Amino acid sequence: MQTEVFSEFPLLSTANPQTLEWLLNVAIEHEYPVGRAVLMEDAWGNAVYFMVSGWVKVRRTCGDDAVTLAILGRGDFFGEMAILDESPRSTDVIALSSVKLLSISRERFIQILFKDPQLHHRMLQLMVRRLRQINQRLQIRSSPPAVKLAHTLVSLGESYGHESGKGKEIFNIPFKDLADVTEIGVEETTKIMEKLHQKGWITIDNANNIIYIINFKQLMNLAGKV
Q: Signal peptide position in this chain (predicted)?
């Protein structure tokens, strides 16, 4: 594996070449099939994980119920909170698709944070960005369901979307998970997605598990992000 693989990760965009080479030497590759638990709640944090390909959901279990809190795709990372505060993980991470990951042990990741101030600073920036995204979700909590769902789709498109001839591609996320993240009902999610399809703003390719966001600008307008 070449160090170029790390160019996909915003967290590592400012890291120096020596840091990237060192990370490559200590990283461990993992592959998980659809539905497999990548991390389990209450397990002690011993590594940080980088998404090479695929999609996962971050969920919290409440008794027999499980609620999806976030969807993560290629280029993102997770597991950093548990290694920084040395506590058990507070959420599960489940593969929504086939997933390839790189993991770096807690000891080695913290060691490199001290060696590379740019990486340390970049990590703080991205953690602050996640807090801002949570604040945005709180601000639109009382908005109509269609606005909230549009906000979710736009955020996924901006973070992980891939441009294609048919529009911006994202994974065909199960409606239950979309509903959880958006904090609306599954029936509402189904109706809104059908309406967006009828308007020609999105197309769902069930055979290939892809949602094509065709009219991204209109979706942004609906989400109030322009």
A: none
Strands 37-39 and 92-95: antiparallel
Separation of alpha carbons 203 and 206, rounded Å:
9
Q: What is the dihedral of CA 36, 190, 209, 161, to 10 degrees?
A: -100
The count of other CB atoms within 10 Å of the CB of residue 16 is 13
| Domains in the chain: ranges and CATH | 3-138 (2.60.120.10), 143-223 (1.10.10.10)
How far is 35 from 66, CA to CA, in rounded Å?
14
Whole-structure pTM value: 0.87
Place of tokens 């120096």: 16
Q: Which residue has the tokens 């160090």?
A: 3
pLDDT for 140-159, tens place per residue?
A: 888 999 999 999 999 999 99
